[in-house]
Amino acid sequence: MRHARSKPKLGNVFIVPTGDGRAGVGQVVAAYGKDALFFAIFDFVLPLDEVAERAVGGLSAPVLFLALSVDAKLYAGHWTVVAQAPVNPAIPLPAYKEAVNLPTNVEVVDFSGERRRPATAAEAASLPNRKIVAPVRLERALRAALGLEPWLAPFDELRVENVVPSASVFR
Fold first, then answer.
1. Closest CA to 115 of 10, 7, 32
2. Confidence of residue 5 (pLDDT cuts 50, 70, 90)
């Protein structure tokens, strides 16, 4: 019999096993709609037997990766929620572009999908489209950052320095 798991909540802190006896720390930092979540993965890795008790301390480390994803790894129990903590408001939640009705009618949309406005030509050319990535991509990017597997080009778009923050386009 399968036990019902609670839906992930804003502020949930979870551990991401790296497959080598260590684990990283992530947090649910925002939501999009009813089923998509923004996960932040922090630059904080400890031995697996220590990370659960020290995970909240990892939230003060820099964010390595940020992505819109789904709760599959949490639901399956591959990632374990170990704490609840406030989300750092300095985490740069992304802005996106979205074509509305016609491919030439482009709007800028904030991370939540609730704020929008017409895009400038430069924004239409440079902002990414919103994309939901599988949580395993975040896990593999963390493993690659640790040198445990090859770095792949799709991991680049997860790097927090490549995010265009919603706050920078909605003032």
1. 32
2. low
Q: Comparing C-alpha atoms, which of 133, 121, 14 is closest to residue 74?
A: 14
Rounded to whole angstroms, the Cα distance separating 44 from 71 reads 21
Across the chain, the runs of DSSP E, i.e. the strands, are: 12-17, 22-32, 36-47, 63-69, 80-84, 96-100, 102-109, 116-118
Number of neighbouring beta carbons within 10 Å of residue 2? 4
pLDDT for 30-43, tens place per residue? 999 888 999 999 99
CA atoms of 25 and 61, how far apart (whole Å):
10
All residues at 6 or more sequence positions from 160 whose CB lies less than 8 Å from its CB, including other chains = 40, 62, 63, 64, 65, 66, 91, 92
Backbone angles phi, psi at 2, to 5 degrees: -90, 135
- What pLDDT digit, counting tens, does each position of 10-19 carry? 999 999 999 9
Mean pLDDT of 99-117: 91
Rounded (5°) CA angle 169-166-74? 165
Chain mean pLDDT for the chain: 93
